[in-house]
Amino acid sequence: MNAANTLTNAKELAVWARLAREAQNKTQSEVALAAGVSRAWLIRFEAGAVRAELFRVFDVLAALGYGLTPQPLREPVNR
């Protein structure tokens, strides 16, 4: 993540989701069940290894009690 803690790529989102799950003392199985995904899929997502379908990412975030609010970046991200 950058200095402002803004997520700018899928890997950062995956790490953030894992940290949020751990902060809530939830298991991968609990979050996977609540999100309607397999535990294996969640493990791969948290590791950044999955080219995750966007709808599943939103399901995982919702299972953790979060959504996304788009906001302008302070500086453009060049890829």
From TrEMBL:
GO molecular function: DNA binding
Lineage: superkingdom: Bacteria
UniProt-listed Pfam families: HTH_3
Stretches assigned to the HTH cro/C1-type domain: 18-73
InterPro entries membership: Cro/C1-type_HTH, Lambda_DNA-bd_dom_sf
CDD domains per UniProt: HTH_XRE
Entry protein name: Helix-turn-helix transcriptional regulator
Species in which this protein is naturally found: Protaetiibacter larvae
